[in-house]
Structure formats: structure tokens, C-alpha cells
Design goal:
With 457 residues, the protein is α/β, with parallel strands linked by helices. The protein contains 19 helices and 6 strands. 56% of the residues lie in helices and 7% in strands.
Length: 457
């Protein structure tokens, strides 16, 4: 039992749920107190101690029954209810089938479930032992059912019923046999699906979490699956917290700068100008940031991560103005005034549904200069998050040049390498000379480094 609990914890971590050692210890303490006799109490004790975020409840509810199932689905046996004449009719009808089909129907009529060894052989045959993503549970279960001949059994069932009817079997008995075979077929299907889920989560729990995470940090955004994107979104919160601590410490240390003679003299007038209290120049200056993010289909996930980073680091920024655009610009800072960052990002993305081939950065820059140009000044860092693709619309380089001149510096974060700039509908080769720097950001590791350097400068 302890081993399965540890595997459940490992699978939760591999699924992106943060479970600390203290929470794991709490889970074992709760089980010692409440026992494992009552399955629902056992489930709730693990749920209450291991899950601290409501967003992770779905992951727990999906994984728990795969480690602690309710046993094999029930199977029915008709053999004892058959008269000798009916048993002989079924035997004669089965002899007309191939040996493989005959064996399948005999097993279904006897109500025999699959043995562990048979399930292991099926798993090896269909490649289940190499799968560690629960999204493939149903697909792998279907492959196992095909290997068991489920499609052929379903097709041959009506032929068997027709043969038995021609032999004179009672219609009520025929319906009973048909229902029994279908129910047992469904039970074996459930057994196979349960086993597939159990094997996948075992594979998931055995996967080293650090290796998986390191791999995701360096994987290009475009190659991530939906499950991996969720893991990345969780990791952003941890990385942002680490960055916040590092930046705050950097700013604290920077406060002790050069001696400020004028401030020292003013502060010590009360001491007859004896320099008892020393004043230093404050060398730290929290940045003012204006971020313009492309949330079209190709850039949405990248921009979502960037916004989550910036708003998790609000304490290290003097002023933040955030904008999102596809074919027009919207001011989105008010969405982040309260509540969870992830909820705010979700509201923004819901309000601006993405689409293909409708990006118009030029028009969005026109919106910005008309309504929000006053957010830029000599202390502002202008950050643009996008791939510079504009669907052959006017890039409005004149407006972008005006925005760059008003800003202290202009930084562009782009996931596309320079050799793609200018290809197709890309205007990046024209925007790049107007920026102080263009950072290539293709994965979370590079995004973290970029945000750190932006706030450090």
C-alpha cells in the first residue's frame, strides 16, 4: 500500500501538481489515523493532504482510481443455466467458426476475465509499456481490444445468434445469451482500460521528474503538448517567485551606492555638520515597463507566459502598462488589478479570441500612438512580444520608430530565428534596426533569462 501511495505522489508531481515532502508525510499520518478500510475515507484523506490548489483536484481525481481501483468488473457465466440440448446447440454453432473466434466466444460464455499475465502480454504487444501520457489511455485500450479480436467478435455475434435460431433455440434464451456476451465483452473492455490507465500512470510515476522538467524548459514552445503546456504554466509561477527574490535582493544591495555629499551635509546639520549619519546615492531604479503582446494563434502561448511573468514580478516594477493585440490593440492592465494571474490571463484571452491570418500590428501601433503614447517616456522600457508577422499589412514603421524614440530602450522578444525574418509576411527585418535589442526566445529557459536581464538592466 505504501508503495502505491508513493507512486501516486510521483505521478501527481509528474502531472504538474506540487507535492512537498511535508505534505507527503501528512498523507501517511492521516492514513495511520483513519485507516484504509473505508475506500472513500482513504481517498478523501489523501485528497485533503496532497492537494492544496483547487486546480489540481481534477488531476488527483483522475489518478487516484488508477492506483486504487475497485477491483475487476463483474463477469457472468451462463453455463450452469443451459440445458444439455442448448449446450450442444451452442457447441455445434461454435464449431462452424474459426478456432480463434470459437475460443473467444467460449471464454465470454464462461465469464472468464483476463489474467495478469495475459494483460502483460497485450501491453508488450501494443507498446503500452513505453507510454507515459494519460491522454493515450483510451487509444491504447482500443489497440488492446483490437488485439483481442473485439471487432470480429461483435461482427460474428449476430451470425452466432442466427445459427442458434436456425437450430431451434428459444428466442428468450437467444436474447439472454446475446446480453451475456455483450456484458462480458464490456467488462473485459473495462478491465483492459483500467489496466492501460494503471500502466500509464506507473510509467509516469517512474519517470524522473527533474529530467522531464529540464527537457520541458528547453523544448521549443511550438512542440509542446497540451499537458506539457500546463506543466510549463505551473513552472512559470515557481520561476517567477525565484526571480522575484533574486531581483529584490539585487535592488536591495544596489541601494548602498556612492557617498551623497549634499544629502550627508543636510542630514547632519542637526549635529553641527559632524557627519554622523552617512547618506549614499540610491543607484537602484525600478523599471517602468510598457509591454505589447501578440496574442494571435501562433504567439498566444508565448505571450501568455510573458504576461504571467511580468505580473508575478509587479513588486519589482515601478509602473506596468500591458497591451494585447491581434488586429487591434486593447489595454489589459486592469485585468490584473486583483485575483490570480492565471485567471486574469484567461479573461484577456477569452476577450480576444485568436484566429489565423488576421494579425495587424500596424493598425495596433496606430491604436497605441493615438490613445496611449503618453505611457512612454525617458524612463520606460518598451517590450514587444511577437514574431513580427503582419499578414502583408502596413507595418507602420514610422509609428514604431516614434515609440522607440520616446522610450529609454526598446526590447523585442521573438521566437523566430533571424534567418526567417523577412520571409513570407514577416516584417521583423524592418522592425529590428529600430530596437535596442532583439532577443531570441524559443523556450521557457530563454524566456526566464530574458525577463531576468530586462529587470536587471
Amino acid at each position: 500500500m505504501e508503495g502505491r501511495i508513493l507512486k501516486l505522489i510521483a505521478a501527481l508531481r509528474a502531472s504538474g501538481v506540487r507535492v512537498s515532502l511535508a505534505e507527503s508525510a501528512d498523507a501517511f499520518s492521516a492514513i495511520d489515523q483513519l485507516g484504509v478500510q473505508d475506500r472513500d475515507t482513504f481517498r478523501l484523506s489523501l485528497r485533503a493532504t496532497l492537494i492544496k490548489d483547487a486546480r489540481d483536484l481534477a488531476a488527483f481525481d483522475k489518478l487516484f482510481p488508477l492506483f486504487f481501483g475497485q477491483g475487476e468488473p463483474p463477469m457472468s457465466n451462463l453455463s450452469s443455466d443451459l440445458t444439455p440440448e442448448e449446450a450442444q446447440q451452442i457447441a455445434d454453432a461454435l464449431r462452424q467458426m474459426s478456432q480463434r473466434l470459437r475460443a473467444r466466444f467460449e471464454r465470454l460464455l464462461q465469464g472468464k476475465s483476463l489474467t495478469r499475465n495475459e494483460l502483460e502480454q497485450l501491453a508488450q504487444m501494443v507498446g503500452l509499456n513505453n507510454v507515459d501520457d494519460l491522454r493515450y489511455q483510451n487509444w491504447m485500450a482500443q489497440r488492446m481490444q483490437r488485439a483481442l479480436g473485439f471487432p470480429q467478435v461483435r461482427e460474428a455475434l449476430e451470425e452466432l445468434m442466427q445459427t442458434l435460431s436456425e437450430m431451434g433455440m428459444d428466442s428468450q434464451r437467444l436474447e439472454q445469451i446475446r446480453d451475456l456476451i455483450r456484458q462480458n465483452l464490456q467488462s473485459i473492455g473495462q478491465q483492459v482500460a483500467q489496466f492501460a490507465g494503471e500502466r500509464i500512470v506507473e510509467n509516469l510515476s517512474e519517470k524522473p521528474p527533474t529530467e522531464a522538467l529540464d527537457d520541458l524548459l528547453n523544448r521549443p514552445f511550438g512542440s509542446l503538448s497540451d499537458r506539457e503546456k500546463k506543466l510549463i504554466q505551473r513552472e512559470v509561477q515557481r520561476l517567477a517567485a525565484a526571480l522575484r527574490t533574486r531581483i529584490a535582493l539585487r535592488q536591495k544591495r544596489a541601494k548602498t551606492g556612492q557617498l551623497d555629499a549634499k544629502a550627508t551635509l543636510r542630514a547632519n546639520l542637526k549635529h553641527q555638520s559632524v557627519p554622523i549619519e552617512i547618506r549614499h546615492r540610491d543607484r537602484t531604479r525600478k523599471p517602468r515597463i510598457v509591454a505589447i503582446c501578440d496574442v494571435s494563434t501562433s504567439m498566444r502561448f508565448f505571450s501568455e507566459l510573458m504576461l504571467a511573468f511580468l505580473y508575478a514580478l509587479q513588486g519589482q516594477v515601478r509602473k506596468m502598462h500591458a497591451f494585447a493585440f491581434i488586429d487591434h490593440l486593447e489595454y489589459i492592465s486592469t485585468d490584473f488589478s486583483d485575483g490570480e494571474t492565471s485567471e486574469a490571463v484567461s479573461r484577456v484571452l477569452l476577450r480576444m479570441p485568436s484566429g489565423y491570418y488576421n494579425t495587424d500590428l500596424g493598425h495596433s501601433l496606430q491604436n497605441f500612438t493615438h490613445d496611449h503614447l503618453d505611457t512612454l517616456n525617458g524612463r520606460t522600457t518598451l517590450i514587444v512580444v511577437g514574431d513580427g508577422r503582419n499578414n502583408f499589412n502596413d507595418p507602420r514603421l514610422d509609428l514604431f520608430s516614434q515609440m522607440a524614440r520616446r522610450s529609454a530602450r526598446t526590447i523585442w522578444l521573438n521566437p523566430e530565428p533571424p534567418d526567417k525574418w523577412g520571409s513570407g509576411d514577416s516584417d521583423m527585418h524592418q522592425y529590428a534596426p529600430l530596437c535596442d535589442s532583439v532577443l531570441l526566445v524559443r523556450n521557457l529557459a530563454e524566456l526566464t533569462a530574458a525577463v531576468d536581464s530586462l529587470l536587471a538592466a
